[in-house]
Give the backbone structure.
Amino acid sequence: MGTSKTKNLNLKPRKHQRDKKGEAPYYAFFSLEKRIFTFCLAFRALNSLLVQTYFNPDEHWQALEVAHQMVFGYGHLTWEWKKGIRSYLHPLVFALLYKVMAFLRLDTPWFMMKAPRFLQSMISSVGDLYLYKLSRIVFSDRVAKFALFSQLSNWFMFFCMPRTLSNSLETVLTIIGLYYWISFLGISKHYVPSTSRKMALLLSALACAIRPTSAIIWLYVGIFDLLGIQKKLRFLLLEVLFIGIFVFALTCLLDWWMYGSWTFVAINFIRFNFFSSGGDYYGTHVWHWYFSQGFPAMIFTFLPYSLLGIFKSKEWRLSGLIAWVLGIYSILGHKEFRFVLPVLPIALMFSGYSLAALSQSKPSRREKGRFLGMRCPSRIQLSILFLIATNIPMALYMSLVHQRGSEDVMYYLSKEAKDGKVESILFLMPCHSTAYYSSLHHNLPMRFLDCSPSHTNGVLDESDQFMENPAGFVSEMFQHISLPSHIVVFDSQEKKLEEILALFSFREEKRFFHAHFKVDRDLQASIAVYVMNAS
């Protein structure tokens, strides 16, 4: 079987690849690998417990809510599931978790809130390990250690990777897939090319099945390296096509079973997001947003180190992948941070290269000197301190403080419902501002304001109607529904509803801090829970 050699990736062979005498025994690496994986497991477990804020509705509504409906028989399926643009493959991961929890009778409010993120964190720790392994075969052991440091200390990776977003799983599959693909290319002599190639293709197919847009990454990787592969036709027909059809068939069978009819999710997804610009309904950004704002905010203070690592390493193939992904996603009007999450670890790997180069540089005359009797810190020490000092506070604030009200209110309501104190709930807030049945875990009537895309231009959905005129909308609504026992509302709209809530005998029961500053709407500083007075 032909392979593309190191020169195709423009990589410098590592010293221990050229010098057998200076290389550590292979079993020693496995021992180190186990220690690294154990550390990553422990780190991500703690990470999952420290993520207590709300970030993106899809974490709950496109994963956990669907899994809850699959296992417990109740849950809300959003319009995406009615149009068949979501696959059940990703929710299935958490459905299996819920099955185990139900069997062990661990489906209590606390476990329902924490267990899914804990599971995702365990998956993410595998991605951390494989980023280390990928950096090792692309560059060196030293770079791998600093790449792992960059991965674990970057604020956005800490904030996002434990979340049950399909993008988090896609990122893990991408990193592992790239590792096996580059192993197949012959960078490291420790791996069997044929096995690595098939594993890479399988992982890429799974990533595309979970998020069809992952094909953007693998098209770039495949097209560039196809030229260096011998027996191209055999490779395309017997491996790429065979594995692709196998995964596609399994996914179609799962979706057929769950939807009740043949549903080709990938086709529906691409048609809606690329050809009809359906995602634009939820907002658009300028074309350069990923380059000027989005990705720089994600990589944060690692950005200069990453850019320096790209130019110093001259590893243009992987750096080109980052530019390719950012460029393609820039074409789409609707943009979100999480869409480009899979290439963030690659950018952080280049940061690891830059830090490794700093650690090997000779100390300057100033660094050899002393200040107040103490030795001046080296450039690598200053860099590490700077990165920790800028990323850790950001990670903790975003994970523990900013927008935590959405999580706290659902945990409170789930405990109240368990004690039989809740009969029904109305969420008077922008749609999908909180989790739903997957957090409440009680089958009682609930209602939120719908924001499904309208086929008619200019027609406002319920959520927008409420935001335009809260009092008028609620007055009209209360004439056509049975009044709930509990109402959940942001303080920014609560001020406009005080009179009508008092008129219908609702009183404030509980208030939760939410945020210090606004994101894309008026400041939503707190969330209030109102309860109807007993007659």
User: Anything to note?
Assistant: The chain has 24 helices and seven strands. The chain has a mean pLDDT of 88. The first strand starts at residue 370 and ends at 371.
